[in-house]
Structures are given as C-alpha cells and as structure tokens.
Design a protein that fits this description.
- The complex is a heterodimer of chains A (about 160) and B (about 290).
- Chain A folds into two domains: about 5-80, Beta-grasp domain (Ubiquitin-like (UB roll), Roll); about 90-160, DNA polymerase, domain 1 (Orthogonal Bundle).
- Helices cover about 35% and strands about 15% of the residues of chain A.
- Chain A is built from five helices and five strands.
- In chain A, a hairpin with a 2-residue loop joins strand 3 (about 50-55) and strand 4 (about 55-60).
- The termini of chain A are far apart.
- Chain B folds into three domains: about 5-50, Uridine Diphospho-n-acetylenolpyruvylglucosamine Reductase, domain 2; about 65-175, Uridine Diphospho-n-acetylenolpyruvylglucosamine Reductase, domain 3 (2-Layer Sandwich); about 175-290, CO dehydrogenase flavoprotein, C-terminal domain (Enolase-like, domain 1).
- Chain B contains 13 helices and 14 strands.
- Chain B has helices at about 15-20, 35-40, 75-80, 85-90, 90-95, 105-110, 110-115, 125-130, 150, 175, 230-235, 245-255, 265-290; strands spanning about 5-10, 25-30, 45-50, 60-65, 70, 135-140, 140-145, 150-155, 155-160, 165-170, 180-185, 195-205, 210-220, 225-230.
- In chain B, the strands form four sheets. A five-stranded antiparallel β-sheet of chain B has the order 4-5-10-6-7. In chain B, strands 11-12-13-14 form a four-stranded antiparallel β-sheet. A three-stranded parallel β-sheet of chain B has the order 1-3-2, with helices on both faces.
- At the A-B interface, strand 4 of A face strand 1, helix 2 and helix 6 of B.
Amino acid sequence: MQKQLVRCTINGKETETYVDVRASLTDMLRNEYKLTSVKKGCEVGECGACTVIIDGECYNSCIYLAIWADGKNIRTLESLLGPNGELSDIQQAFIDEGAVQCGFCTPGFIMTALEILESGREYTREELRKQLAGHLCRCTGYENIYKAVEKTLKKRKAQSANK
Amino acid sequence: MYDIEALYEATSEAEAIRLMQQYPTAKLIAGGSDILIQIREGKLAGCTLISIQKLDSLRGVSMDEDGTLRIKPLTSFSHITKDPLIKKHFRVLGEAVDTAGGPQIRNIATIGGNICNGVTSSDSGSTLVAYDAITELTSPDGVRRLPIQEFYTGPGKVALKPYELLTAILIKKESYENCEGHYIKYAMREAMDIATLGCSVNVRLSDDKTIVERMRVGFAVAAPVPIRAKSAEAAAKGMPVSCKTINAAAKAALLDVSPRTSWRASKELRLQLVEELTKRAFEQAIILAGGEL
C-alpha cells in the first residue's frame, strides 16, 4: 500500500514514520505511537473523543488524514503527564467535580478544556457550552464538566495574579 | 483506515490542476469534513483523492487594490470568524460560519468546500449569495469569474468544469460598504446540527437612516440550492424603515422560495420560517445599520 513519510512533533518530541496514506491521525497516534488516550468513538467527527491539539487548535483526529500531520505540532492527553505520573490541574478538577464516569469522552474534553485554559481569556457559562459543544458525554450530563473547567480557569487566574 | 484507492498530495495550485487532469475521476479533498465522512458512510468508498489541504497559498483573507475582499477557499470557518478584515467588513459571514457544527469542525471545515459541495444547507451559502459573491475559477484555460448564484447549478452540483479549481471568493466593495447583515440559523440543536432553514439579510440605509436603500436576502434550505429572494428585496427597496416594510418583504419572500418536506421538517414549517426569519433578520440588520423601529 501507498506509504508516505510524516515528520511531526508529538507531545514535544520530534518524530518521523512512514504511514499508510489511508490512515487517519487517530490511527497513526494509536497504532504507531501507542497514544491510546486518543479514543476511537464515532469516527465521523461528531463525538469529540479523538480530539487532539494541532498547532494550538483542537481537531477531531478521526477526520484528519495522518499525512496532513507532516510538519505539525501535535498534543495529546499524554502530554499532561507529570514527571512522577502526577495529574495536571484540569485532570484533578475533572475528578474532584465528578466530571468523569466511564471516562471515554474525558481525554477529548480535556484537550478542548486545555485550548480554553491556554487562551488566556475569561468565559461565560454560555461561551463555555459553545466551546465544548463538539464533545458528547452520555454519563455526566455535562454540568460537572463545565464546573471542572470553570474551577480550573479561576484557579489558574488566581495563580497568575499571585505571580 | 479509510477506504481510499489512492491519494495524491498537491504541493501547488498548478500541480493540483495537473493531478485533476491526470486522474479525472479523483475527488478533491480540502478539509475533509464532508469527503472523509462520505468515505466512512460508503458513498465514496474506494475513491481516489487529490489533497489540496497543504496549499497555504489558498488560505487566508485579503483585500485587493480596488477594495474587493478576497476570501481564499481553504480558509477554515474559525479563521474566517477571527479574521480582522471579515470582522470589519463582513462580520455576518463570520457569525454565519460560527453556527456550523462544533469548534473542532469549524477548525477543519473550509469555506471553499462548503460551497463546492453544492448543498443548500451550507451555513455560508445564504450569506454569500446575499452579498453577490463572485467565485474565481482557475483551470488550464485561465481564470474566469462567475457569480455565486450561477456557480450553484443544482442540489450537490456546481459549475466547476473538469480540471477547474475554486481559487477565491470575492466580495466587491460596493457590496459590503455601508452594509450591515444578520444571519439566523433555525435548527433543532444549538450545535452539531444542520440548518432546518437559514436566513441572511443585509441592508444599506439612507444617510438619515429612515429609508431602506437596498435590502438583500439569501436562504438556506428554502430551495434546492442557496437562493436570493428578489421579490422580498423589491418590496423593501426604497421603502421607509418600518415594521410595515419588514412585514411586506417577509410576505414577498414566500413568492421566491420552494422548500420541500424532508425528515428534518415539513414544507409548511419551512414556509413559516421563511416569513418569520426574514422579519427577524431584517429587523436585526436595520438595528445594526443604525435604523430605529
């Protein structure tokens, strides 16, 4: 089968591999790099479980061809892992607020939450709902997810004010 | 893995056209939010693709010397919404495309793809027809320009000839200057949904803000392709800024539309929406333009 070289940065590490041109970015991240936080859900860009950050913006990696990743900077949930396996603030907030039940949607939600947290601006609940609308969760009812993101936004704001 | 027979990646516009000549049955893929899903669904399974995703020369918004807004086809919806030129001169387009899908979709979906797929429910189409957008089409024979209304030829069909590439969407200065617009998408959900009906109205008022100098209205899902409602526009042109004018234009819009019943909504509901959304969008456009009702 037709293969193509894909050079990209994944979670801060420069990588290169030959991928099948038919592969989605989800396929490449899971199969070549074993980054299994990137979930295969609907595979048609509806559920958001496969969300990753590419050059600072969130994408559904299931509807993104792996070959397009060439030259890109990609981040998955694994990039949040602390040196001794610690959780990041947003992951801890998801746990504390009961925003995780079965957990399948969680990595995707956290990637979008990360884009929100790193935007450096404030959000109303309405704006947060809109920003997180590309993810489906069949367990939590979303309320606790909004709370976890809001809580982390506040916490980070307070931290940067103290600096 | 996608069921793709072969994939060729273009590194320039000229190469894209050359690849189209070499592989006449191949499908062009830009952002992929339609094509890849149709491959998954089986409709396009086994197809050959020519990817133009990496052609950065076809990305972004700029202004020509004569003030024409030049929207390149690979610009993503989210980049259109954020673009300073769009915010300043064509804000309604940024708002319209911000209603499509969800954030991740708006990061990958391109405006060119949204009109080249020829679907009537496109969130950009109604606003583009309402602003007399002009498509710039490039082929080995050269470059030609076609009004967007002529670009749409039927459901899922556009006037692109074989080996022809959409290279820009143009909005003339005369079209956006002193003009304010408003788009309303009526759908069952606030996100990740397709319009049951879309209505985009824009107005240019007289200097004293009392007369409707020009009103244009475009619809999504009110006909097989995005359309203008010329009867509504004629009913509003030159009339005083008033509720009476708004109501008359909304009634007249019914003469120009031909919605159908689908699983999303009945023809009757869509007709009601045509009238009601025209009123609401017209009213909002007048307020944005500084008029009082």
